[in-house]
Specification:
This protein is of the alpha+beta class. Helices cover 54% and strands 12% of the residues.
């Protein structure tokens, strides 16, 4: 992630769009990896996203499932 702004009082403030891209890329990669190992991942990934300030909807996991797990990491 590239810092968006630096403040003496608030520290580094990251670009929110860059953080969103980072989180979603991790969700896609981890979803595929957990599925390969036969680990139920939906609640785990939702919890991880919540820790980073994001709420994931169940429809996202439906889309991931219907894609057949054909999600490439870059």
């Amino acid at each position: 992630l590239v810092p968006h702004q630096f403040s003496r009082t608030e520290g580094i403030q990251y670009n929110s769009e860059a953080l969103e891209i980072f989180v979603m890329q991790k969700i896609f990669v981890l979803s595929q990896w957990l599925k390969q190992w036969g680990i139920q991942s939906q609640s785990r990934l939702k919890s991880m996203a919540q820790l980073l300030g994001y709420e994931l909807d169940d429809t996202l996991f439906d889309l991931i499932e219907t894609s057949g797990g054909d999600i490439k990491s870059g």
